[in-house]
Design brief:
CATH superfamily of one domain: Vaccinia Virus protein VP39
Number of helices: 9
Order of helices and strands: EHHEHHEHEHEEHEEEHEHE
Shape: globular
Strand content: 15-25%
Distance between the termini: 44 Å
CATH topology of one domain: Rossmann fold
Radius of gyration: 21 Å
Helix content: 25-40%
CATH class of one domain: Alpha Beta
Oligomer: single chain
Largest sheet: 7 strands, mixed
CATH architecture of one domain: 3-Layer(aba) Sandwich
Number of strands: 11
């Protein structure tokens, strides 16, 4: 259960913007004064009862969360896809067709891409509801229910592992990367993507409605780039590439509620902030 104060998110945007101004990121001498004025206006609005009351948001595991999310996952406008997909696809474009595992495949977003490029695809996911969406989408692929820490595949079974926007849900990277190393053949590739830990503080924690319609947050570990290296290097993985693409300028980032109170501060907070982290690893 997480306590949420109604001022926390918009004041957080103002605070980050002020810290960046203090560090010299913005030349306009009136920028900080405008932020302080907005803070005063928000505090006054809160005192008048215009911002609502504090609430609490509960937690949900990934199986239950994705059961609810599967109903609209493919139709939802997820801004992270637009940041992450071009880089992941560019890495995959340089890997010749092979036997590929789409780990935590979800509804088959990358399974479809891999199959379209001639790969023999097996997808694994812990959510039967997401797999039910993936199977008709990519009928030429094989889909299996399973966990990232216990993949239902034999040793040295695949040449490529893709795992997109899923590792934030696991408590530790080491066991997952160990499984990837186990099912990979020598010379095999791993392509990983996930939301950047910095963006988890910008409203990026995935949530889904429960059976009563109340929003519940799914697990969200904050992995630093060094955490990936600490898990990957002892297993023999070599780093081929690492990307941390930034959020593009967007008039909707942050969401409509925070933008009505702190539009300029929200834009300043997102500016040059990493949206995702993408790794290309390879076994020797």
């Amino acid at each position: 259960m997480t306590f949420r104060h109604p001022l926390a998110f918009p004041l957080g945007m103002e605070g980050v913007a002020l810290l960046r101004a203090y560090a010299g990121d913005f030349a306009d001498p009136g920028f900080s004064d405008a932020r302080v004025a907005e803070v005063r206006a928000m505090l006054a609005a809160y005192d008048r009862g215009e911002l609502g009351a504090a609430d609490e948001i509960g937690d949900v595991d990934t199986v239950a969360g994705y059961r609810a999310w599967s109903a609209y996952y493919d139709t939802e406008d997820n801004p992270l896809f637009g940041v992450e997909e071009p880089l992941v696809r560019s890495i995959l474009a340089d890997i010749k067709a092979c036997r590929a595992l789409d780990a935590a495949c979800g509804t088959g977003r990358y399974s479809a891409f891999l199959a379209g490029r001639g790969h023999l695809v097996v997808g694994v996911d812990g959510s039967p509801d997401m797999l039910a969406k993936a199977r008709p989408k990519v009928p030429e692929a094989t889909f299996l229910e399973g966990e990232l820490t216990a993949l239902p595949l034999p040793h040295a079974d695949v040449d490529l592992v893709v795992c997109a926007l899923a590792l934030t849900h696991v408590p530790a990277l080491g066991p997952v990367l160990s499984e990837f190393a186990r099912v990979l053949r020598p010379g095999g590739h791993v392509v990983l993507s996930d939301i950047h830990w910095m963006s988890l503080y910008l409203g990026g924690i995935a949530s889904a409605p429960d059976e009563n319609g109340a929003s519940r947050r799914m697990p969200a570990s904050r992995f630093l780039p060094s955490d990936y290296l600490a898990a990957a290097l002892p297993l023999g993985f070599q780093v081929r590439a690492c990307h941390e693409p930034r959020w593009p300028n967007s008039p909707t980032q942050g969401g409509p509620w925070v933008r009505q109170w702190a539009t300029e501060a929200t834009d300043a907070t997102y500016e040059n902030t990493p949206a995702a982290i993408i790794w290309h690893l390879q076994l020797p």
